[in-house]
Amino acid sequence: MRIAFLGPRGTFTEAALHEFQRRGVIDANAEAVAAANPREAVHWVREQQVDLACVAIENSVDGPVTPTFDALAEADGVQIYAEVDLAIEFALMSKGIGLEQAKKISTHPVAYQQIRQYLDAHAPGIEFVAASSNAAAARAVAEGEVDLAAAPAHAAQVYGLSVVADQVADVPDARTRFVLVGRRGKPAAATGSDRSSVMFTLHNKPGALVSALGEFAMRGVDLTRIESRPTRRGLGTYRFHVDILGHINDQPVSEALRALYLASETLTFLGSWPAASIEAIPQLYSPSALQASRDWLDAMKEGK
Question: What is the pLDDT averaged over residues 59-86?
Answer without folding.
Answer: 91
